[in-house]
Design goal:
The structure is a homodimer. Chain A is α/β, with parallel strands linked by helices and about 375 residues long. Chain A has two domains: about 110 residues, Lyase, Ornithine Decarboxylase, Chain A, domain 1 (Beta Barrel); about 220 residues, Alanine racemase (TIM Barrel). In chain A, about 30% of the residues lie in helices and about 20% in strands. The first copy, chain A, has nine helices and 17 strands. At the A-B interface, helix 4 and strand 10 of A face helix 4 and strand 10 of B.
Chain lengths: ~375, ~375
């Protein structure tokens, strides 16, 4: 199969770039003495997870039990579920994941949930591995750092069916700060909450064997934190416009990793000499960023949203693609864009080398 | 199955409201002497299409061949594909749709595409039913109105394997204009382009048996156009926040149809007495509108985006939902939200009456 035979809109992965991204991150974590547990919420694709692990990752992160169900069923091991597992329905499905992968870890940030989880594991004759989730300023999930987290850690150790392994702290709000120096300063300030909590854990003889956190935006910043044992970076393997613009260590664009992900569309209408329509709109790209898809190799062609199924291209006369022209675009935000597709075409140049299932797409439960 | 057993985030349909919406639109088109060909890009669900047809719709619209493939395979007939079918890959798949549903119609807006389509049909020994697509100011697909559209109509009649049936004009840019009077005035102004083109078609002895257009926002406006034979409204069956705010005929909210669609989430973290996190974020709701999901029956609880998998709820102390609480939200925009889910839970009160496949989800090719 070649590119022109792919039904559009379609998600494409440039394998050369993707493989270099995987190798580069693997080399980086090795050099700085950290482990890598890449976040699979980015790609939701068991084949990509397998390749990350083959390159040295210790396992993967999943945002939800639903993703962990898919990954475990595909033979992926050493999963960390990074969102709290609350209520009998979700805990019930966690048991199914533990059937396949008993080493699976979950995070906790609440005394009631620790009790619920511990009792459910006891009833099932199981032991669950647990990290205490600490809010490092993202105002999302997570306990307050310091003593409140230590208190939760103690509660975990009191549950005979829970096995405390350490801490998680995800500073999502730092991942996209523009300018490396500013990002570094801000990230270190917030992540110090996790590091101080780690010290308190040590003082209180609570395990700190795993301290997990970090993003693709801070992969070369979080590695300075001696107490952090592993990075959770996700987007690095495919990249997107949002990461490219945050600025790299050496100034200029963030180009540590390559733009490996595109959406392939077709020009289906050319109503005027300066306007063409492609068959990809709000259902082909995520729309949560303030900027739009960028045409690859079509300078001067500007994309704008034109509804659920259409994108509008504007260009000077004579610069517009013709009817039927295939057009590739870099997506604004990789994770929710990938989540719109059931498969990804793994490309070697213009050839489709493989088609991989995005098996955990829509499995956010 | 009952509501508390549904894995969250999940898409819920209130059947009582949905059934009233379907019945109300059916009665409306009957009363005004029009036909209804509801747009299935809203719901992508064969079971909903079946119920629309059972209530009197003449068929359905599909945005893309990919959707038509799914609908035709589910036994749905009288499909209009509302986006131009361009290139051998898409035309090849259209042949498969015609195998099951030879009456399927497509739209054209380009001479080259008319030739390509005609030749492909001739080679396949088929006849395709065709509408000329006219731009009524939406700056999307469609020929210029008037003579250019007549020219395309003539080209269609010259193709022995194409059967011209009439016209399509979709004024998507009028659907969400706030205030009924303004929406009415603007819509009539733009749709007059389609009506004048229809008159020109008649003068030139080109068929006008089908003149298709209209949205849920203009369902009680487009019906004034005597030349329009059918409405393409889609969102009316489920509704969303975007439609509710555009204003109704009698002033106040647009309440002609009821809010039947919600996203069910679970509170998975309550980090502070005024902040809670639910398990639905950018992957659980479409984000293409400038406003956010609205909590059903939780006044004073405000949602904000908190990443791919999380939503942040803020409320005064004592007004916040507890850990594990199920929370329903009205989505900002129904079509791309439904497109995130594989199934919809059809609810009768708190009971799950059925689970329907959103079989054309992601089938935008």
């Amino acid at each position: 199969m070649i590119k022109t035979e792919i039904p559009t809109p379609a998600l494409l992965l440039d394998l050369d770039r993707f493989e270099r991204n995987i190798a580069k991150m693997a080399a980086h974590v090795k050099a700085v003495g950290k482990k890598l547990r890449p976040h699979s919420k980015t790609h939701k694709c068991p084949e990509i997870a397998r390749r990350q692990i083959a390159a040295g990752a210790v396992g993967i992160c999943c945002a939800k039990v639903g993703e962990a169900e898919v990954m475990a069923a595909s033979g992926i091991r050493n999963i960390l579920v990074t969102t709290e597992v609350v209520g009998p329905e979700k805990i019930g499905r966690l048991m199914g994941v533990l059937d396949r992968a008993p080493e699976t870890m979950v995070v906790v940030d609440n005394a009631e949930n620790i009790r619920e989880l511990g009792q459910a594991m006891t009833r099932a004759g199981r032991v669950a591995n647990v990290l205490v989730d600490v809010d490092v300023g993202g105002r999302r999930t997570g306990s307050e750092p310091g003593e409140p987290a230590v208190h939760l850690g103690r509660l975990v150790t009191l549950e005979t069916s829970l096995n405390l392994r350490g801490l998680q702290g995800y500073a999502g709000h730092c991942a996209h700060i523009e300018g490396y120096a500013n990002r570094r300063k801000t990230s270190h300030r917030w992540m110090s909450r996790l590091m101080k909590t780690r010290e308190l854990f040590e003082k209180n003889d609570l395990p700190t064997e795993i301290v997990s956190g970090g993003s693709s935006g801070t992969f070369n910043i979080d590695c300075d934190l001696s107490g952090l044992t592993e990075l959770q970076s996700g987007s690095y393997c495919v990249m997107d416009l949002d990461y490219r613009r945050i600025g790299g260590k050496g100034g200029g664009d963030y180009d540590d990793f390559e733009m490996a992900l595109t959406v392939l569309t077709t020009v289906v209408s050319v109503p005027t000499p300066t306007m063409a329509m492609v068959d990809g709109g709000l259902k082909a790209f995520s729309t949560d960023k303030p900027f739009v898809p960028e045409a690859v190799e079509w300078p001067g062609v500007e994309y704008s949203w034109a509804g659920d199924e259409h994108g509008r291209l504007m260009a000077q006369e004579g610069r517009l693609p013709a009817l039927g022209q295939l057009m590739e675009f870099f997506p604004p935000h990789c994770d929710p864009t990938i989540n719109l597709y059931d498969r990804i075409y793994a490309m070697r140049g213009a050839k489709v080398e493989a088609i991989w299932d995005i098996a955990a797409r829509g499995r956010g439960q």
